[in-house]
From TrEMBL:
Superkingdom to which the source organism belongs: Eukaryota
Domain Cytochrome c: 55-137
Family matches, as PROSITE patterns: CYTC (PS51007)
Family per similarity comment: Belongs to the cytochrome c family. PetJ subfamily.
One cellular component (GO) term of this entry: chloroplast thylakoid lumen
GO molecular function: electron transfer activity; heme binding; iron ion binding
Cellular localization per UniProt: Plastid, Chloroplast thylakoid lumen
Listed name of the protein: Cytochrome c-553
BP term (GO), one: photosynthesis
Function per UniProt: Functions as an electron carrier between membrane-bound cytochrome b6-f and photosystem I in oxygenic photosynthesis.
């Protein structure tokens, strides 16, 4: 089986854009029908359709190790021990819950004792770190 993350992202965002009746006529309804049909065909053909990850997890790990591990080694938090990067703690303490978007916001703007990295890291680097944090929290920090 293979995964098409770019295709998945396009399909998810396209289908999400039409959460109700089309606003501009039958063209949008036809496109929506085609996209929904393509998803069904892909699944039937054995193609795994999964949500796209916004960033590169391997690169995110490297950036994390260079910029974040001093305070968050092994997914922990040396400043505020209860606010780890573990799955449950991210869901409980991260503004917006456990998601890449919430991690991006936290890393970009900082909060409380955490400094902002928006001026130090590029948007792409922050996205990669967010992908790494979310995936690693899902798999368990080691």
């Amino acid at each position: 089986m293979r995964t098409s993350t770019l295709g998945s992202a396009l399909i998810v965002s396209t289908v999400s854009a039409w959460s109700g009746e089309p606003k501009f006529g039958t063209f949008q309804a036809s496109v929506k029908s085609a996209v929904v049909g393509a998803v069904g065909a892909a699944v039937s053909a054995g193609v795994v359709v999964s949500p796209a990850s916004a960033g590169d997890v391997a690169r995110g790990q490297q950036i994390f190790n260079m910029n974040c591990a001093a305070c968050h080694a092994g997914g922990q938090n040396v400043i505020m021990p209860e606010k780890t990067l573990e799955k449950d703690a991210l869901e409980k303490y991260l503004s917006g819950g456990r998601s890449e978007a919430s991690v991006v916001t936290q890393v970009t703007y900082g909060k409380a004792a955490m400094p902002a990295f928006g001026g130090r890291l590029t948007d792409s680097e922050i996205s990669d770190v967010a992908s790494y944090v979310i995936q690693t929290s899902e798999n368990g920090w080691k």
